Amino acid sequence: MEMSHSATRTTLFPGLVLALLALFAASLVLAPQQARAFEPDAKVVYHADFADPRRLSAMIGSINNMVMHYENEFMEADVRIVFVSHGIRFLTEDNLEGTPFEADEELLEERDSLQSRLRNLANTYDVKLELCDITRSEVGLAEDELMDGVDLVPSGVVRIAELQNEEGFAYLKIE
Question: Bridge-partner residues for 77, per DSSP?
Answer without folding.
Answer: 42
